Amino acid sequence: MEINAARKLLKENPVFWSRLGFCYDPPLKNEFGRPLVFTEDLSKYGKYHRSFSSIGVKIHTCILHSGWVGIDEYDYSLTDRVLDEVFRDSPDCYFIPRIKLNVPIDWCEKYPEEVFVYHGGPETADEIRALVGTLKQDYIGYEAPNGYYMAGDYVDTRPNVGGLIARQSFSSKKWREDATVALEKLIERLEKSKYADRIIGYHIAYGVSGECILWGRASERYGDYGISHRKAFFDWGIKKYGSREKLADAWGQKDINRDNVKLPSPDERYAKTDTIEDFFRGNDNQTIATDFDYFISEVNADTIEHFAKVVKEKTEEKLVGAFYGYFIHTDNPSYAGHLALDKLLNSPYIDFFAAPKSYYRNLAGDPGGIMLPTQSVNRKKLWLDELDNRTHLAHGVEKEWASKNLATTRTVFWREFAKNLADDSGFWWMDLGGGWFDDKDIMSEFSSLVRTNEAIRKKEHKSVGDILVLVDEDCINHMNISSDLRLGFMEDFLCELHMTGCISDVYRLRDLEELNLEQYKLIIFAYTFKIDEKTKEVIAKIPKDKTLMFNYAAGVISDDGVSLENVSELTGISVSEADASEYSFPALKIEAGADVEVLYSCNGVPCVAKRSGKNGGTNIVNTKPFADRTLLCKICEDAGCHTYAPAGNTVYGDNRFIGIFPSEDGETPITLKEKGDYENAATGEVFENTASLCLKLGVTAPIVLIRRG
């Protein structure tokens, strides 16, 4: 299939993922010497693929074993079984294999200097080798007393707790070389198989859960203090600073060399600090921590691009993608290595990005969310949202996150559907637990979603949002960790904003210069703490008929360093540090002036204020964490934003449809922008020649209005 046709197919069609072929990672052998798969009877999951094929889902995906089971050892028995099962009764479907490239355990024993090491772990190759294969080796990448807790039919008896080493270092050149051989061998096998024409792309995976995340996950445990990583960081530093002497000065290590470079400890990288200058790494002794964060993301992005290039060179016309870019939902994406977005967005070898949907506030009545600004990704690549929402059929530990019944399950999947179409994104439905969708009523609902998707996608997408939200991943490399700050001014803030009844778009700050701002009434700098002089010039040219809102310490990091004066110069409203903070970051307050109107105070301390310029335009500064929808509604209303439904209703939509998802049951007045004929895709009910409705909606009775004609 020609590459552009494959992109169009993937963008416009839902995808289904199952546990078919879900196997132990690292690759282990079962009692028969074959790759250990969690469910030997693959037909159990093949049945789910056939169910989705029968309702019109054309593209399927799952983990496909790479065949790499040991040093120079390959076994494709599981690989072949999975392929045969996918296509058994659906020979015309399309397939995107997810290929994990993590190393086998014997590789770690042979190449201990290439192994990832946690802080406080072993330092020499012999010390590292001695821990390989023991309980002091982290196989999975996160603390898991029961090992693979979602293994299904397989019961993992190996506790994965307190490891001092993990598996391959992301900076290991030897890993890249050997994984490249494994990837090339697999691709050659697949492209010569009878299924070659049905395979439209490859999903590259490695690290924790195959999500290209550094071992230890974000904000749990910290590395990499291994041998190859230390040396690679030194080489990176030499390239950046130009000489050993300049590097020694920048990192405060007088006699630094490739063998003795001292990496910053977790406390030096992410310890809680009380002042703005410390929190945003404004001190010279914090330079190495910021550099280390940049280094990790660059190494990770380089690795993804390397493997993507291998696929392109072996296939030419096949799509390539990876999990990447988590920063709205993740506390420490710099540690995860997910902040080199520009490199991958501009790479000729990457076609799609993916991530699970946000796990925060994602049940019925909630707004749901995203891991990163998907609309930014869709400007250059394709975003695919992994919808592993737990249905009411989920069991075990997953039941806590699950919908309670069919009605709430239905609401959640219609909301996720509307969210992604509003952003012009693709998505896949993920049956992570096995059997989450194995119900005729659920499948009937998905059948409606497939038909609605086809109808909506026939029309070209155009945003109708009145609100532009800007967030910035680069500033995160210059910060200490604060869940409160991230939630209070980005993820929770976005949730409450979506529940104002207005429609908002979310982009990266660095897109601002290229965006057409004509449609927007309110532009919110939600999480933009690093703003350079060039971007300030772009902001200064924003038309004066827009309301600009700046969250917390917007622009506190400038080309000249860290200072609250930067915030005041950018916004025209002075801020200062408050006496105390109840959160894990320094609190700020508004310095009221004659031309500053205080909109909201916390315990008598001004924290939201606006200032109107002499030549027009309104600036608002918000230093209040967790601003609620009531406050945001007032700001949106004053800015002239269109309200589709009252506060408490999440609204997702574009020029093709409007989806309204209430948090409470009751009569809901709806005001559309244009009069016309509309159909509720969720029920089939038709409303003719109207722009105003008052309907009895609720948590289990959302509405998705499609414009007819």
Q: Any overview of this molecule?
A:
With 709 residues, the protein is of the alpha/beta class. The chain folds into 4 domains: 3-111 and 167-221 and 292-457, TIM Barrel (Alpha-Beta Barrel); 227-290, no CATH class; 467-639, Class I glutamine amidotransferase (GATase) domain (Rossmann fold); 649-707, Sandwich (Immunoglobulin-like). Helix content is 31%, strand content 21%. The chain is built from 20 helices and 28 strands. It has an 8-stranded parallel β-barrel with strand order 1-2-5-8-9-10-11-12, surrounded by 5 helices. Strand 11 (382-387), helix 15 and strand 12 form a beta-alpha-beta unit. Helix 6 (173-191) packs parallel to helix 11 and helix 7 (227-241) packs across helix 8. The protein is globular. The model has no long low-confidence stretch (mean pLDDT 95).
In short:
31% of the residues lie in helices and 21% in strands.
Provide the fold topology:
Blueprint: H1 3-12, E1 15-17, H2 43-54, E2 59-63, E3 68-70, E4 73-74, H3 77-87, E5 94-100, H4 105-110, E6 115-117, H5 125-131, E7 165-168, H6 173-191, E8 201-205, H7 227-241, H8 244-251, H9 266-270, H10 276-279, H11 287-315, E9 319-323, H12 333-336, H13 341-345, E10 352-356, H14 374-380, E11 382-387, H15 406-422, E12 426-430, H16 440-457, E13 467-471, H17 483-498, E14 504-508, E15 522-527, H18 533-540, E16 547-551, E17 557-558, E18 561-562, H19 564-571, E19 575-577, E20 588-590, E21 597-602, E22 605-612, E23 618-622, H20 629-639, E24 649-653, E25 657-662, E26 666-680, E27 686-697, E28 703-707
Parallel strand pairs: 1-2, 1-12, 2-5, 5-8, 8-9, 9-10, 10-11, 11-12, 13-14, 13-15, 15-16, 16-23
Antiparallel strand pairs: 3-4, 6-7, 17-18, 19-20, 21-22, 22-23, 24-25, 25-28, 26-27, 26-28
